[in-house]
């Protein structure tokens, strides 16, 4: 069983992930948080295999908390996700030590594959092409 935690400042997004993972037999969502500080506490207490972190959150953003989690908890893999997919964000995600990156603009159908691959030690970086909006 792969243990997953979700960090997002929007409860509606967390609810969507809960429903999504309920339908996958070998992935269990064991926790969630609405901010970066609580994300660190969740990882320390629950030791998820994979943590999904929204990049844009008030206070400390997902990029900053990813740096902390990947340094302190090397066995926990991090997948960042965002609705603001651009070259700068992608570059920062990779530099932060994230094991994966998924745009919220993509279908959730690949999210379980991302979790499986990242848990096995592979990277999963899925970028949505945004015509005329690349920065």
Number of DSSP strands?
6
Topology pattern, helix = H, strand = E: EHEHEHEHEHE
Integer average pLDDT: 90
CATH class: Alpha Beta
How many structural domains does the protein architecture include? 1
The assigned CATH architecture is: 3-Layer(aba) Sandwich
Strand composition percent: 15-25%
N- to C-terminal distance: 39 Å
CATH superfamily grouping: Response regulator
Query: What would you call the shape?
Result: globular
What's the CATH topology name? Rossmann fold
Helix content percent band: 25-40%
* Radius of gyration, CA atoms, in whole angstroms: 13 Å
Please give the largest β-sheet.
Answer: 6 strands, parallel
Number of helices: 5
Oligomer state equals: single chain
Structural class: alpha/beta
- The largest sheet has its strands arranged as 2-1-3-4-5-6
| Unreliably modeled segments | 130-135
How are the secondary structure elements laid out?
Elements: E1 2-7, H1 11-22, E2 27-33, H2 36-46, E3 50-54, H3 62-72, E4 77-82, H4 87-95, E5 100-103, H5 111-119, E6 124-126
Parallel strand pairs: 1-2, 1-3, 3-4, 4-5, 5-6
What features would you describe in this structure?
The protein is α/β, with parallel strands linked by helices and 135 residues long. It has a single domain, classed as Response regulator (Rossmann fold, 3-Layer(aba) Sandwich). 39% of the residues lie in helices and 23% in strands. The protein has five helices and six strands; from the N terminus they run βαβαβαβαβαβ. It has a six-stranded parallel beta sheet, with helices on both faces. The radius of gyration is 13 Å and the shape is globular. 37% of the residues are buried. Mean pLDDT is 90; it is low at 130-135.
């Amino acid at each position: 069983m792969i243990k997953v935690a979700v960090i997002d400042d929007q409860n509606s997004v967390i609810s969507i992930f809960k429903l999504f993972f309920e339908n996958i037999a070998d992935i269990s969502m064991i926790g969630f948080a609405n901010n970066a500080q609580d994300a660190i506490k969740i990882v320390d207490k629950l030791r998820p295999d994979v943590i999904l972190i929204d990049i844009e959150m008030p206070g400390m953003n997902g990029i900053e908390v990813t740096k902390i989690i990947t340094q302190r908890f090397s066995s926990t893999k991090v997948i960042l996700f965002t609705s603001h997919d651009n070259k700068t964000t992608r570059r920062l995600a990779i530099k932060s030590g994230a094991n994966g990156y998924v745009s919220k603009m993509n279908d959730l159908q690949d999210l379980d594959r991302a979790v499986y691959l990242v848990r096995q030690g592979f990277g999963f970086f899925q970028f949505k092409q945004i015509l005329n909006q690349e920065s």
